[in-house]
Amino acid sequence: MHKYSRALIVYLLLLLSFSAAIAQQPKTLPELQARIQEVLAKPELSSAMVGIKVVSLDNGRVLFEENASKLLRPASNMKLYTVAAALDRLSPDYRFSTSVYANTRPDAAGVVHGALIIYGRGDPSIAARFNNGDYFKGIDELATRIVAAGVKRVEGDLVGDESYFLRPKYGPGWNWEDRTS
Question: Could you tell me which residues come within 8 angstroms of residue 18 by beta carbon, excluding any fewer than 6 positions away?
Fold first, then answer.
């Protein structure tokens, strides 16, 4: 059996077990904790590493955790929760912005004397995978906007500023191959 097929089966068993365990809402915190422990003790999970943390949405109090601080790779299904949280936090109407700065305005001939700084904030629409594999489409659109602002030439450096992202690219314990994009 392929390792991903097995992982999917384990995930589905875990999901079904949790669904069944909490189908009748526990009346007390110890009852909730006992039901979660029951699911985690199932033989189907004996070879799996499971990390779980349950936090109250009302007050932020930790209700249950096991292996919560272990460095585990997020499962593919975690992407669904991440997208849902991003949509909730940012809204479907959120738009990323990429700013362009220069110390001086372009002169009458459209020349910027000095650096032109592109300040990125993670706009995914620039990526080739969102532009039918075209690596230049997103950049060409940005360049078109810069030209529309009157810039014809830059006599200085072109700077890509990624300082918006102050945190490390990789989580603690990740290897370079853990990142897929």
Answer: 36, 39
- Cβ-contact 67, 51 below 8 angstroms: yes
Judged by DSSP in three states, 111 sits in strand
Q: What is the pLDDT of residues 25-57, one digit of tens each?
A: 788 899 989 988 998 998 888 888 888 888 888
142 close to 118: Cβ distance less than 8 angstroms: yes
pTM for this entry: 0.53
Q: Is 129 left (phi over 0), alpha (psi -120 to 50) or beta?
A: alpha
Q: Is 39 exposed, middle or buried (0-12, 13-18, 19+ CB in 10 A)?
A: buried
Task: Report the pLDDT value the prediction gives residue 78, as an integer from 0 to 100.
Answer: 74
The residue among 73, 90, 107 that closes a domain is 90
In a domain, 180, yes or no: no
Rounded to whole angstroms, the Cα distance separating 104 from 113 reads: 7
Q: Is residue 117 part of a domain?
A: yes
What angle (nearest 5°) sits at the alpha carbon of residue 118, between those of residues 116 and 122? 175
pLDDT tens string 80-110: 878 888 888 888 899 899 999 999 999 999 9
